[in-house]
Amino acid sequence: MSDDPKPIPRELQAGVELLMARKWAAAVKAFEESASLLSSRGDLAGQALAMDLLGAVMLENGQTSAARQAFEGSVAICEQIGDRDSQLHALLALAMMDFDEGRSSAGHLRLEEALLVCEQGGALREAGMVFGVQARVRLDEGDFPASRSAALKSASAFERHARSADSREERELSLEGQANALLAVAEADRISGKVGDAHPNYQRAMQIYRQIGNQERELVVSLVYEAMEIAAKPPAKDYSGSDTAPISTSL
């Protein structure tokens, strides 16, 4: 799997322009025509991308069932030709649709399938993203141990990708992903009442944000951390109206 963005085939340009203009119905028609044209030419990779984009537009247009069919069609073609980039995108879209429709088990299976695609393609950054989605979903479900585990795996994947990144930009993007994942670990600990366990990961996340120059995120995390520190301190004793109030020695 490549870090470089996939070039958009010429046949899809009209649909992409309509998509950017948020003209959903016209974009749907354009991508349907493009998918048919590319299929007739035997361009399966182009057809898979067209169906992937078609599913995204249909989803925005409220055509949920048709969007699911488009994404599933894209996955089937990608499996056939080994196009892991489009396959991963379609699997994630299907997983989020499953979660939105209350089909939690199906959604988690889609995420596991997406992780397998990442593993087969050696895609560490993409794996970090999928583990991050897992962490958020598990947190929403109240499964804090599973959320923490997924977030730790996300942080590890991003860290490994950062070490092997070819450019400074790629490295900093992965370090930011690592920091976000460590923040998710800390949040899972904090929400589950394990405040002491949350401290090191809050601190490490702040260090990484500082390292890559993301001052906004560093400030947000530092404020959360300080609020947590204040909440952990025992309340000051109130001696007003108490027989045990200390006696003033001032004149």
Question: Which short descriptors sum up this protein?
Answer:
251 residues; mainly alpha; elongated
Structure explained in plain terms:
The protein is built from eleven helices and no strands. It has 251 residues and is mainly α. It is elongated and about 70 Å long.
Count of DSSP E strands? Answer: 0
Q: Which oligomerization state do the chains in this entry correspond to?
A: single chain
Could you name the ranges where pLDDT drops below 50 across 5 or more consecutive residues? 245-251
Q: Name the structural class.
A: mainly alpha
Summarize the model shown:
The protein is 76% helix and 0% strand. With 251 residues, it is an all-alpha fold.
Q: Secondary-structure map with pairings?
A:
Elements: H1 13-20, H2 24-40, H3 44-60, H4 64-81, H5 84-100, H6 104-121, H7 124-140, H8 144-164, H9 168-191, H10 195-211, H11 215-232
Helix pairs in contact: 1-2, 2-3, 3-4, 3-5, 4-5, 5-6, 6-7, 7-8, 7-9, 8-9, 9-10, 10-11
